[in-house]
Amino acid sequence: MMIDALVTTKWLADHLNNSNVIVLDCTYHITSSKRDAKAEFLDRHIPCAQHFDIDTICDLNNPLPHMIPSVEIFSKEASNFGIDNDKIVVLYDTYGMYSAARVWWMFRLFGHDKVAVLDGGLPQWQAEGYLLETGLVKNRLLSNFNAIFRRELVKSCDEVLAVVNSGEGQIVDARPSARFTGEEVEPRQGMRSGHIPGSISIPSSEFIDKATMLSVNSNKLFMIFVNSGIDLSKPIIASCGSGVTACNIAISAFRLGYPDVAIYDGSWSEWGSRKDTPVEIGPAKIRCA
C-alpha cells in the first residue's frame, strides 16, 4: 500500500482499522497562545491516534525550541508509538497543516518514507462528520523502529551562514511577510526583527487554499515557487520561526517531485537571537529564476 505526502480524510477513514497504519496527532501551539495541545488531544482526537509532542521528542539539552532529537531518542519514541520501519504513519494537527508537516519532515529525516499528512487535518475530519474519541489510546503495542539519519535534510547555523556569505544557494523563509520584512515584532522575546540576508519570502499560508482550507493543487503550488524566483532543481534551505512552518516548504516541494529541501532547524529562534549573524530588513525580495 503506497501513499503520497498527503492523504485525504476518506483515505484515512478507509484505513483507520488497518494495523499497519499508525495515526499521530502532532498539534503544537506557540507558547503565547496559552493553549494546551495535550489537554485538547485528550478531549478529542481521531480514533486510535496518539499524541506526538515536538517539545518533548526533541533535544531537551538544547535551549532552542524543539530541536531534533538524537537517532537513539527518535528510534525509542517511534517504537513506543508502535511504529516499525514497515508501518505507514499518518500525521495531523488541529490547524490543518502546521506542526504535522514538521513531524512529517522528522520521520523523513530519520529515514522513514512511509509517512503522510492528513490534508486539512482535524478541522477537515470534523467537517466531514467522521467520528472522534477521547482519552488515551488503549493497549498500545510497542514495536522496533530503527532510524537512519539523513544528514542532508537538516542545516546548522554555520551551514546557513556559509550559504549567505557565498551569495549562492536558495534560502526560503516561511514566516508571515510582515515578520520577514521586520515590520512586525517577533512573538518570541529577545529576537531581532528582519530576515536572513538574501532569503526569499514564501509565507506558509500561501500553500493553503483559502476557500477549502486544504492544500493547494500541484499547478498552483508550482507557480508559487516560480513566482517567487525559486528554482526547485537547485538546493533549497527552508527557514521560519522555529523550524515548524519551514517544513511546509519541504512538503510542498516534495509534492512536486523535489524531496531534498533541507530545514534550518534553529531557524529565526537561533538566527534572530544571536549577535554574530547578519540581518536584513525591508520588503520581501523576489529574484528572477
Automatic annotation (TrEMBL):
Q: List residues traversing the bilayer.
A: none
Q: Which SMART domains match?
A: RHOD
Reactions catalysed according to its record: 2-oxo-3-sulfanylpropanoate + [thioredoxin]-dithiol = [thioredoxin]-disulfide + hydrogen sulfide + pyruvate + H(+)
Please provide, alphabetically and separated by semicolons, the GO molecular function terms listed in this UniProt record: 3-mercaptopyruvate sulfurtransferase activity; thiosulfate-cyanide sulfurtransferase activity
UniProt xrefs under InterPro entries:
Rhodanese-like_dom (IPR001763), Rhodanese-like_dom_sf (IPR036873), Thiosulphate_STrfase_CS (IPR001307), TST/MPST-like (IPR045078)
Q: Which GO terms describe its cellular component?
A: cytoplasm
Q: Which residues form the Rhodanese domain?
A: 17-134, 165-280
How far does the signal peptide extend, from start to end residue? none
Q: Name one Pfam family in it.
A: Rhodanese
- State if Transferase is listed as a keyword: yes
Compartments where found: Cytoplasm
Question: Which keywords are on file for this protein?
Answer: Cytoplasm, Pyruvate, Repeat, Transferase
CDD domains according to UniProt: TST_Repeat_1 (cd01448), TST_Repeat_2 (cd01449)
Q: Which residues form a coiled coil?
A: none
Please state what the protein is called.
Sulfurtransferase
